[in-house]
Structures are given as structure tokens and as C-alpha cells.
Design a protein that fits this description.
Length: about 270
């Protein structure tokens, strides 16, 4: 998470406001209380409250009762969608995402690799009645995301540990990875299989499969993921879906005139 650093060439009030925005974005679905924010940032409640009220006024944060508790505001969602629309990767990938969604019956998304974190920029909803309300443009936690794990698998082990320190390996569900050793073991599996899995690790009841996409240097620039409701999947079904997502991820790579990494896909 971003940290305000008074010793650097920062406008401290702006840096602290942005720190609060990022904290709220990565907070739990039910929101964060003032006490929780104060404890995490090690700042006084009075100082935080003044900043939060300003962020609420401008729509970057919203407050809900009882509590109050603080959640991301609609301004962030609107800005995220506008930013995503301007990313050419989304336009290039969209026809491929649509085809994969039709074949798999799942919701398909594409994410940019931003410092080891997935930032989703395009989404095609599956044909079913279930809709996943996932705003575009927000940086998501990589250790509980199939796209995030697919991206991490293309980093060096030292880079993975740095990302783990930055995101804190926070727990989202009882299945979330919370230690570096667990994460490294998971990444080795992703490197072997060529695709990554989120088995109810971010949201209970939701299952995702992701695979990396590459530029012409062979560098991972992002990933695509397929999302659906968790059901009793056999290992054979998981492998079939994984291979399918990999196939379409490779098609995005081809459209970018990229070349696949030597990792994964054994």
C-alpha cells in the first residue's frame, strides 16, 4: 500500500489522503471503521476524520451505517472505468474475451500487470443469470486472484516476495494464502501448470482460473481470468478449463505480436 512519507518531496496532506483511499479500496467488503483506519495508519482519529469527510464530499469514499464504515466511492469506480476504456489492451482483447465467455459460459476479464498487481481493464459477462459486480481500473490483491497469481508466476522469486510484503498477504476468506511459503508453493504449481486458480480465496463461493499474456519481449503484461460460481469441479474439469483459458490468453498474446514466456504450460 502507498505510504505517506514526510521526508520525501510529497505534499503530505495529499499523500495521506491517497493512503486512506488505497486502504479503503483494499478493505473488507463491509468497509472499515474509523478506529480500524486509525489503527492501521497509526494516526489520530480526528485527523483521519477530517480527511475522510473531504474524500466523502468528493465521492472518493462513501460512508455507511451503522458505524459509520467507509467504502470506495462512486468517483473511483467512474474514474476506473474511464481509465480502462482508454487502455488499448482492452479493445484488442475484447473479441477474444467474448469468444471465451461464449465457449466457457463464464465471466471473462483481462488485467494489466501493474507492479505485480492485476488491474482489470475489460470484462465480458457470462451468459448466466449471475453477474459479478467488479469495477474496472482498481488494483486487486494478487495472492487471492487467479490473474494475480498468473502474473506473479512470471516474476522472479525475489520480486514475488517484494509484492507479498507490499500487499501484506491479507486474508479475504478462510481459504486465502497468508504466508510467503504458501504463496511460493502455489506459484510453483502455477509455473508447472501454466494457469492459476482462485478457489474461493478472494470471495466465498467464487472460483476463477487465470493465465498470463505477454508482449513482444516475452514480458508478462497482464492476464485473463474466467470467473464463475464455485461448484464441485473434478481435477479433469479444472485442467480442461485451465487449458481453455491458456489457449485464449495465447490468442491475446498473438494479437499483441507477443511471445510466450518459457515458464509454465508443462
Amino acid at each position: 500500500m502507498l505510504k505517506a512519507d514526510p521526508s520525501a518531496t510529497q505534499v503530505v496532506s495529499v499523500a495521506r489522503a491517497l493512503e486512506l483511499v488505497e486502504l479503503v479500496v483494499h478493505g473488507p467488503d463491509e468497509g472499515l471503521s474509523l478506529a480500524e483506519i486509525a489503527r492501521t495508519t497509526n494516526r489520530s482519529k480526528s485527523a483521519i476524520l477530517a480527511t475522510l469527510r473531504t474524500l466523502v464530499d468528493f465521492g472518493y469514499v462513501r460512508s455507511i451505517e451503522p458505524g459509520p464504515k467507509y467504502l470506495p466511492g462512486m468517483t473511483l469506480i467512474r474514474f476506473g472505468d474511464l481509465t480502462a476504456v482508454k487502455d488499448p489492451l482492452g479493445a484488442i482483447a475484447r473479441p477474444i474475451l467474448t469468444e471465451l465467455s461464449g465457449e466457457s459460459g463464464l465471466t471473462i476479464r483481462v488485467a494489466r500487470n501493474v507492479g505485480g498487481f492485476p488491474v482489470f481493464i475489460e470484462r465480458v459477462d457470462g451468459p448466466g443469470v449471475v453477474r459479478f459486480h467488479t469495477p474496472l481500473g482498481a488494483r486487486e490483491l494478487p495472492h487471492v486472484s487467479s490473474a494475480g497469481k498468473a502474473i506473479l508466476a512470471e516474476l522472479s522469486d525475489s520480486e514475488i516476495r517484494e509484492v507479498a510484503r507490499e500487499c501484506g498477504l491479507v486474508s479475504r476468506t478462510k481459504k486465502s494464502i497468508t504466508t510467503v511459503s504458501e504463496l511460493m508453493a502455489e506459484i510453483e504449481k502455477v509455473r508447472h501448470d501454466g494457469f492459476a486458480i482462485d478457489d474461493e480465496e478472494d470471495v466465498q463461493g467464487i472460483y476463477c482460473i487465470g493465465a498470463a499474456i505477454f508482449d513482444h519481449f516475452g514480458k508478462c503484461i497482464g492476464a485473463i481470468s474466467a470467473t464463475g460460481v464455485r461448484r464441485d469441479l473434478t481435477p479433469a474439469q479444472v485442467n480442461r478449463l485451465g487449458k481453455l483459458v491458456m489457449k485464449y490468453a495465447d490468442q491475446v498474446t498473438d494479437q499483441l505480436h507477443g511471445r510466450k514466456s518459457v515458464r509454465g504450460g508443462k
